[in-house]
Amino acid sequence: MQLIEEPPLTPELIRARHDAVADRLRLAATAAGRDPDDFRIIAVTKGFDLSVLRAAWEAGLRAFGENR
To answer: The pTM is what?
Structure first.
């Protein structure tokens, strides 16, 4: 298995990725005749350390979920 090099998860990168997912969700909901406001994006924090959670908070994310 080849590892993929990822850039550091900064608030700016997290915000950009969140916005891209939100845009795709809005388009898919609209195409399906659904209200895009009926959906909520939850940031999954499993496996990330506290610095990444802080970056996500700084990026404006407020809904977090974790699974054991």
So the answer is: 0.83
